[in-house]
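User: Reviewer 2 asked us to show a designed sequence for the structure in our supplementary figure. I'm pasting the structure tokens here. Could you produce the per-position amino acids so we can include them in the response letter?
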């Protein structure tokens, strides 16, 4: 059982169910539009239906699931509006978070970011998508955690789940992964040179590219 280092408590059954179902939605194991059946989830997660039901309601509140009256709860379908809104938020706020980090970052903290960026480059070379995703998450989360602006960080964190869901889709192409990693390395170079203007430009360009690619990919697959 996992231990929550922030609260110092073992997660409740509801929290445990929420995390497991959320992870399966984000990873694409539970496909968009698929019905989330309490009995099936209860058997799969080996827990009673009460925490499952509560977890599903929380997932509806976060937008990862959708309640349809008289039919049940479904994995939310990704729409063009969802993609445009999330990437617009990230393109507006993530550069501000990064610049806040750069203004006060120590050399040791910048070195940690460099490690994540280098790990992403190595992951692409090894064609290890799991390693790539892990270090991509760590890269963005690290400068957010140490940006020094808790309110700004909280707004960014509110977009993490849908953004992480998009990440699993955009990393399905190793060819595109190589391009996206090069974009991270350009951002990293600007951070190391403390070039805030270049860092902001590269971050915005990265999110614009991600948004275009995701819309194009889902449109070509008939999902938008």
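Assistant: Here is a per-position design you can include in the supplement:
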């Amino acid at each position: 059982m996992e231990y929550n280092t922030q609260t110092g408590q073992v997660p409740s059954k509801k929290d445990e169910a929420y995390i497991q179902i959320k992870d399966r939605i984000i990873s694409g194991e539970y496909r968009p539009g698929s019905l989330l059946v309490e009995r099936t989830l209860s058997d799969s997660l080996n827990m009673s239906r009460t925490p499952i039901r509560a977890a599903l309601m929380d997932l509806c509140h976060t937008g990862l699931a959708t309640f349809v009256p008289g039919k049940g709860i479904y994995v939310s379908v990704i729409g063009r509006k969802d993609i445009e809104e999330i990437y617009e938020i990230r393109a507006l706020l993530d550069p501000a978070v990064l610049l806040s980090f750069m203004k006060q970052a120590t050399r040791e903290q910048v070195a940690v970011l460099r490690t994540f960026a280098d790990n992403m480059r190595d992951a692409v070379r090894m064609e290890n998508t799991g390693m790539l995703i892990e270090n991509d998450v760590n890269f963005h989360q690290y400068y957010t955690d140490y940006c020094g602006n808790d309110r700004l960080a909280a707004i960014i964190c509110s977009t993490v789940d849908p953004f992480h869901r998009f990440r699993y889709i955009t990393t399905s192409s190793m060819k595109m992964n190589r391009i996206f990693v090069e974009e991270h390395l350009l951002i990293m170079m600007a951070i190391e040179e403390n070039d805030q203007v270049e860092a902001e430009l590269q971050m915005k360009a990265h999110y614009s590219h991600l948004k275009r690619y995701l819309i194009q990919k889902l449109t070509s697959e008939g999902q938008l």
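For the response letter, you might also mention the following. The first strand starts at residue 65 and ends at 68. Confidence is low (pLDDT under 50) at residues 1-7.
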